[in-house]
Amino acid sequence: MTTVYMDNNATTQVAPEVLEAMLPYFHDLYGNPSSAHTFGGQVAHRIRDAREQVADLLGADSPDEIIFTSCGSESDNTAIMSALQTQEGKNHIVTTRVEHPAVKVLCGHLAKNGYRVAEIPVDREGRLDMDQYKESLTQDTAIVSLMWANNETGVIFPVEEAAQMARSRGILFHTDAVQAVGKIPIDLRNSAIDMLSISGHKLHAPKGVGVLYVRKGTKYAPFLIGGHQERGRRGGTENAASIVAVGKACELAGKRMNDENTRVKDLRDKLEQEILAKVSRSRVNGGEAERLPNTSNISFESVEGEAILLLMDEFGICASSGSACTSGSLQPSHVLRAMGVPFTMAHGSIRFSLSIYNTEEEVDFVIEKVPPIIETLRELSPFWKPEEGACATGT
Amino acid sequence: MWDYTDKVKEHFLKPRNAGEVKDANAVGEVGSMACGDALKLTLKVDEKGEIEDAKFQTFGCASAIASASALTEMIKGKSLKEAEKISNQDIADFLGGLPKEKMHCSVLGRQALEAALANYKGETVKEQEGEIVCECFGVTDLEIERAVRENNLTTVEEVTDYTKAGGGCESCHDTIREIIAKVRDEERPVARPKLSNIKKIKMIEETIESEIRPSLQQDGGDVELIDVVGNRVLVATRGACATCRASEITLKSLVEAKLHEFVSPELVVEEVKE
């Protein structure tokens, strides 16, 4: 059975070019970049190149603003903890109700340890309440952390505008851009963003490498304390192969940005329009908002997401669900709940996230397989009343 | 990805008895859309009190569908009396086990069965008894107590796995902890005042007479108290028990268990061969 992979917001395939670029660092070029000898030194050179490649994709002023980390979560943690550590006395954090756990759970933890956390709500389409955001910024606010694009719905926040508001009040601004980088153009040169997180494996580099952008002049305290690596901003011997990989992946992402926003977007649009046309009582979560070109979060009324995923799995189709059962928690995703998606819809939500490697044949295959799966499950469901084409008492 | 057994997968991919029994005379509906799973069980019970047909409709994940499918297979052809005895663990066992986080799916099956049997007997559907502890999932203290008792649960996490209680906002975790402690306390043997020998022998005789003999005699057996030496209870088996190869098990699982329950947990039963 062939795999039809449409779960690219979870993780992506390592691009063949990326794999090729990183392989030598496992055998021929295994030197320590900190070593005095040429053998190690040449690795340091390649890490510098990778830093430039990342800076180029982000439109950063200088490669020195790029710190390599182990993952997106480490980048998020570093940014927030650094802001708190360098601004003692400021005890307020502004974030949103729909952040990734790397930010959300950290902020929840900080809230239990004396910090005040404001979680800005979103509307039914997942758009940020900018009025409430503005009001929440206080003299006491140490940092704002807003995701650039939502991992579950693909909804894009107006981070540039939000960053300007923070800067005009002297507040540090961090964005978790893990889902945005490589999918939409980013230009930090003309922005008020102070810190930005990237995860390698979301843009066709391997798992285990991340990036934190820290604007020059931003007060900074390291999270991982140790050696002088990353100019003393992140201890630990560099993950050379993966750093080279993330550099290459950023270079490729820049070249493929247009393809992502035209061909991939068209495929995504076709997928969701045809599924919606074929399946009654289905809707796109965040469909009215500005979204990433690759993500579609579709809710099917009266069915449960895990059951849909497992039936799709029988055809080799890979996607995700915001249902309770898939996550191991008992409630549907916090993102869908924050958007006020009703229970009848939230439990049956499926996220398709495409990449440049998806083809039209794959999209057609999914369009063919999904509607009968939903029908099968609806026939099993006590809430589904086919004659009404709607759901009975959804308590 | 969940680690489901092949049997769970099979019942999920090819559910048995999906749908509604047309002329059902017993219906049980539990769960809700808000809670993330729901089950409607329809049964046809014949005049002899046997379950002639059983069908289900489920809204829920793979293990909820598989549990409902398994339940219908388990109860078809069974008498009501037999069906009553089915526990959530029996449903899980039938499926070769469920991931612990999914045990609530088997509990849902047992609840639907109970509701259907009550419906058949014409019992009005019981008003929700007890007090709601978990607001997120509408779980009462009595439901939690029962799950703790029947499945020997010891942590809040386990209670959540079996009942969903505590799986939402978590504000009821302290109450759940108290319920677990309460049930555990009840199960701890109560310290009894030390028995005098005469009183002990009298209580043993009474227990054998009222609690043990009647059930042994049903099977044509009997037991006679020979002597009590300290905590050793010496008995002789009679009738069918005397020739039964399983008599030793009977002595342990019935006689000794009853004496532990009604007299003292320190007693040891020994068979005397005459």
CATH topology of the largest domain in chain A: Aspartate Aminotransferase, domain 2
CATH topology of the largest domain in chain B: Sufe protein. Chain: A
**Main interface by residue count:** A-B, 29 and 31 residues
CATH superfamily of the largest domain in chain A: Type I PLP-dependent aspartate aminotransferase-like (Major domain)
Which stretches of chain A are poorly predicted, pLDDT < 50 over at least 5 residues? 390-395
Mean pLDDT of chain A: 95
Q: Characterize the main sheet of chain A.
A: 7 strands, mixed
Give the quaternary arrangement of the chains.
heterodimer
Major sheet description of chain B: 3 strands, antiparallel
Strand order of the largest sheet of chain A: 2-8-7-6-5-3-4
- N/C terminus separation of chain B: 62 Å
Structure classification of chain B: alpha+beta
General description of the model:
The complex is a heterodimer of chains A (395) and B (274). Chain A has helices spanning 16-22, 38-58, 72-86, 101-111, 130-136, 159-168, 229-232, 240-278, 305-313, 324-327, 334-338, 343-346, 360-380; strands at residues 4-5, 66-69, 92-96, 116-120, 141-147, 172-176, 195-199, 210-214, 282-284, 295-300, 317-318, 320-321, 349-353, 384-385, 390-391. Chain A is α/β, with parallel strands linked by helices. Chain A folds into 2 domains: 4-9 and 257-382, Aspartate Aminotransferase, domain 1 (Alpha-Beta Complex); 16-253, Type I PLP-dependent aspartate aminotransferase-like (Major domain) (Aspartate Aminotransferase, domain 2), CATH 3.40.640.10. In chain A, the strands form 4 sheets. Chain A has a 7-stranded mixed β-sheet with strand order 2-8-7-6-5-3-4, with helices on both faces. A 4-stranded antiparallel β-sheet of chain A has the order 9-10-13-12. In chain A, strands 1-11 form a two-stranded parallel sheet. In chain A, α1 (16-22) runs antiparallel to α8 (240-278) and α9 crosses α13 (360-380). The longest helix of chain A is centred in the middle third of the chain and has 39 residues, at 240-278. Chain A starts with a strand and ends with a strand. With 274 residues, chain B is an alpha+beta fold. Chain B has 3 domains: 6-120, Sufe protein. Chain: A; 132-187, BFD-like [2Fe-2S]-binding domain (Arc Repressor Mutant, subunit A, Orthogonal Bundle); 197-271, Fe-S cluster assembly (FSCA) (GMP Synthetase, Chain A, domain 3), CATH 3.30.300.130. Chain B is built from 11 helices and 8 strands. Chain B has helices spanning 6-13, 62-75, 80-84, 88-94, 103-120, 141-151, 156-163, 173-187, 197-218, 240-243, 247-262; strands at 26-32, 37-45, 51-59, 132-134, 139-140, 221-229, 232-239, 268-271. In chain B, strands 1-2-3 form a 3-stranded antiparallel β-sheet. In chain B, strands 6-7-8 form a 3-stranded mixed β-sheet. In chain B, a hairpin with a 2-residue loop joins β6 and β7 (232-239). The longest helix of chain B has 22 residues, at 197-218. The radius of gyration of chain B is 23 Å and the shape is globular. The mean pLDDT of chain B is 87.
